[in-house]
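Box 4.2: Ligand-aware structure prediction
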Amino acid sequence: MPTTAILGLQWGDEGKGKLVDSLCADMDLCVRFQGGGNAGHTVYPEGKKIVLHHLPTGVLHKGCVNLMAQGMVIDPARLLDEIAEVEARGYPLKGRLQISDRAAVTTPMHLSLDGLREAGADKVGTTKRGIGPTYADRYDRIGVRVADLLDAKALRDALSRAIAVRACQMGDSAPTVDSMLKPLLEQGRKLAPYVADTALILAEGIQEGRRVLFEGAQGAMLDVIQGTYPFVTSSHTLAGGIPAGCGLYLTVDDIIGVTKAYCTRVGEGPFPTELLDKSGEELRQKGGEFGATTGRPRRCGWIDLFALRYICRISGVTRLAITKLDVLSGFGDLKVGVGYEGWNEPGLPADIARFSALKPVYKTLPGWKDNISQVRAAGELPKTARAYLRFVEEFVGVPIGIISVGPEREAAFFTSGAPRG
Ligand code: IMP
C-alpha cells in the first residue's frame, strides 16, 4: 500500500515510535504532520535507546527521506540538539531531512508563555514545550515561521509583531526582540540546508508511487477539537489532520490505530477507566509508565473500548495495533470498558463536565499467567490472551493487524485479525 499512517488512539504514548521504526524499513518517506517537541518516540535501534521528539522516526533508516511538514511546531534550539544526537549515532541527515518553510517556530517567548499559563489555576498539565502558545500565535496571525529564521528583517518583523501582542500577558518576563533575534538567526543558519517546500516534495513522492508513512504524535483523545477539550494538545491528531498538516489534499490507504492493551494518560483531564488503586500502580511499574519527554508518572487504567470504537470510526482506522500486551500477564481477571453508566449515546460527550462524570461499565475477561514476551506469532499466545484480543476486535469493529509484546523491534508481529480458537 503506498500511503500508511500510524496514529495513537488514546492519550499518546501508545508505543507508536517502535511500530513506525519497524515499518520505516520499507518506506521511502516518513512524514510528521502535527505536534512538535512534545512527542517522545522511544526506539531501540541496534538495542540502544533513543528518544525522538521533533524528528520523524524514519531518520533511523538510511533509505528513508523524512519530512517535517507545515502542521508541525518547531523549537529550533532543541531540534538542532536532536539532529546532532542522531548524526552522532551514525545516521547522517543531509539530503534525508526536509523541514517545511511554513512550519511554526517556538521561541523563548512561547516557552515562557506556556510556563506562565501552567503556573495558573487552569493548568492543562502540558509538556511545557511551548506548543499551545506557538499554535495560538499561528492562528492569531502573529506567528514566527521557519522561513522567517532565514532572513533577519523578516525575523525582526515577526518577533516584533508577536511581542507587541503578547507582552501584556507577560509583564516583566517578556523577552526583548533583540535578545531572541541573534540566537534564532544563528539556529536558522544551521537549519537552512534542510528547509524546503515539503508539500511539493510529498506531492511528487506520492505521484511517483513512493511508499509514504505518516507518523502521528500524541493521540486521538488529545486532538484539539475532538479530544477531551480543554485537556488536549493544540494540534489535529486524527487522520483528518494529515492533509492540512501536510498542505496537500491526499487520502491514506492504510490507517493503523495504535492502542495499548490497557490505557495511560499524562497531564490533567478526564480518564474514565483510570485505576487509582494498587492495580494502577502495578501497571505503571510493570509497564514502565513514565513520560518519555517529561519523566512524569503516567496515570494508568483499563482499556476503554467504548472510546476506542468511537475514535476508530471518526479517524477511519483500518487496522488496530495492540501494544504492551505482555504487561497484562499475571494480572488475574482483566477488565475492559464497554460503556458508561447512564450514557446511551454512541459517541463521547463534548462537554467536559459530562465527560469527567462518566463512570465506566466493565466486562471482565479471564487473564493469563504466562510470560508472553518471547511470543512472535499470534497463534502462540495463551488461549485467554487470544480471547481478550478477539473481544477487543469484535467490540471495536476493526481488525487487529499488529500485536506487540515487548520493546524490541521483533517483539511486534503482524496478524490478519485476532487469533481464532
Ligand atoms: P502540550 O502538547 O505540551 O501542550 O500538552 C497538552 C496535553 O497533551 C498534556 O496533557 C500533555 O501531557 C499531553 N501530551 C502532549 N504530548 C504528549 C505525548 O507525546 N504523549 C502523551 N501526552 C502528551
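In the box above, the bound molecule is inosinic acid. The domain at 104-191 is CATH 1.10.300.10 (Adenylosuccinate Synthetase, subunit A; domain 2).
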